[in-house]
Write a structure and sequence with these properties.
The protein is α/β, with parallel strands linked by helices. The protein has ten helices and eight strands. Strands 1, 2, 3, 4, 5, 6, 7 and 8 form an eight-stranded mixed sheet that branches. Strand 2, helix 4 and strand 3 form a beta-alpha-beta unit. Helix 1 runs antiparallel to helix 8.
């Protein structure tokens, strides 16, 4: 799979992913539940940050979680064992070379994965192939261009844009959230995409800490050295942007971000070719 996870695999990033998952648990996963006995493929599970929510919401579903990184799979398996999760099997596998027969799963779930792929449409095609007719494919992605904050700051936007540019250079798309509908509609039918808006002000201290500080600011700050080394920004300008982003966590600050959650169904019957023989 052609992908380059620009955030890296350090322990600091692992903690950020866990903070993100716990903060966004209800917003993103509250309405994701699968029937008892159904088979679910979670593609690109990483360290299992989303897996625990998936498994707890559907305790009688049979979940297979895959990732291309053996180290991430090991961490995910350990976290699931420590949490007492028994309905998930972990396997190292590539989304573009899935080791499963066509129509192997009732449902497919993908969260924060497509943004890192050089060909997300091809990935969806491969995932739809292992989905049974009538089964659902759920995708959740963010969009770094959706940020709104007060006080506004050109320096903060410049720092955020560094992350967008670095991800583009690595072959990904940090703005993919806005493109979910056409991506899903190219492979599936009955596609519905909904925005999931994070709104944070000082009246929501858990969100100030869990999302603005530990999720978003930590993510942008993590690319500082790479952005400066790439000549995208000066160290002084980047640091000024981070200062202004932290300013949004103060008593009069506000921060907004938008995720997109899309669900589509696999066609039960293939489309009929035009010009077929009538009865």
């Amino acid at each position: 799979m052609s992908t380059n996870y620009i955030h890296g695999y350090r322990s600091r990033e692992s903690q950020r992913l866990q903070d993100q998952a716990s903060t966004l648990l209800e917003l993103l996963h509250g309405d994701t539940r699968y029937p008892d006995g159904s088979t679910v493929l979670e593609a690109g599970c990483g360290i299992g940050a989303q897996t625990l929510a998936l498994a707890r919401n559907s305790p009688a579903a049979r979940i297979t979680s895959i990732d291309v990184s053996s180290e991430s799979i090991a961490q995910a398996r350990q976290r699931a064992a420590e949490a007492g999760i028994a309905n998930v099997v972990f396997r190292e596998a590539d989304i573009l070379a899935l080791p499963y027969e066509p129509q192997s799963f009732d449902h497919v779930f993908v969260c924060f994965v497509l943004e890192h792929l050089s060909d997300p449409a091809l990935a969806l095609q491969r995932l739809a192939r292992v989905l049974k007719p009538g089964g659902s494919l759920t995708v959740i992605e963010g969009d770094h261009g959706s940020t709104l904050f007060h006080p506004d700051s050109a320096a903060a936007r410049a720092s955020i844009d560094c992350l967008v540019q670095l991800q583009r250079r690595a072959g990904g798309n940090a703005l993919i959230g806005r493109a979910l509908h056409p991506l899903l509609a190219s492979q599936l039918e009955t596609v519905v995409v909904e925005p999931r808006i994070v709104y944070v002000d000082s009246s929501r201290p858990a969100w100030v800490e869990g999302f603005t500080n530990r999720t978003f600011i930590a993510m942008v700050e993590g690319v500082r050295d790479e952005a400066v080394a790439a000549g995208l920004i000066s160290a002084e300008r980047f640091d000024a942007g981070m200062h202004d982003l932290r300013r949004t966590t103060e008593a009069d600050g506000v921060f907004c971000y938008m995720f997109f959650k899309g669900v589509g169904l696999k066609r039960r019957t293939p489309p009929q070719p035009f010009g077929g023989r009538g009865g």
